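Batch manifest, entry 17 of 40.
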Amino acid sequence: MNIQPHLKLEDEANFVERALIDLAGIRSGMLIKNFVSSAQKLKKFNCPSNGLPILIPLIPEMFVAYEKFDLPYERIKRLIFGSVPSNYIGCRLSLNRGNFLKRFTLNSQFQKKLDTYTREILLAQKRIQELINEFGSVGAFQTRNIPHLGHEKIIDKMLEQCELVVINPMVGPKKFGDIDCGKLRGLYDSVMKPRYKNKIHFIPIRANMFYAGPREAIHHAKLREWLGFTHFSIGRDHAGAEGVYKNNAAIEMTRKYENNLSIKIITHGGAYHCSACRGIVLHDDCNHSKEYLTEISGSEFRQTLKIQKHYSYAANDVQNWVFKNHHHLNLSQR
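Output type: structure tokens
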């Protein structure tokens, strides 16, 4: 979905990539129910339980257009993101044009990549089904960050309700500062998986992030439902950025519509260090007052990693691995 003018070349490349990823999602079947091919069909997404609308933008170098339609920028922005500023990162990443396609042909030079992305999605679905057959219950944990002790606590909580946890990040263009989730595989495979005695796997999914907060939390749950997961984890600021959404808004909206989902939702209100408990806790898992709680900050953790200093609330083996692979992870880039 794309609507803003005066784009940089790298932004235009991102929109092409996002369109290919959305097309792969539609073609594989994962996003077929989300595809909007007319202004009238957008009305379906007034109900958040249907997830996010997927529109294919008119990008002349990509498509031969047979039928197209227009939608106003403000209508799409408000529907997907709510009342956020127009310069919000989610809007900048995913909105740049108001012309969308109903019937079209993809130009041949993009077909090979589309085929690859489609196969990746279908392979992920197949692998999840194989794990379901082996373990019975498999939870998806979406994370776009190097794990700190708070993430480990979430994994622990998930393993109380399912037999296996799959680290299931989204593969696609991201905001500045996010780690390339493909590069996280080495960390999880070499450090985290042995620690959890093979109770965690790392399987990414080719899909776009919108940073649309509460609406996207439901969208993500529906994607995992299609993949075959039995459980999915949603946190206090799921798919949010820049502090535009209230804490727990994603949890509240998901709870409101969870009867429309067949996947079981595991929620958590954030991780803290509790000085009274002398350990890491998830919000509401201990009864101590705020004076005992120190929030575990992902942004603070990322900053300490950049200067190769240890963060108090992350495991040493994780941090040592990151220090050795700092250049490979490229923490300062998109």
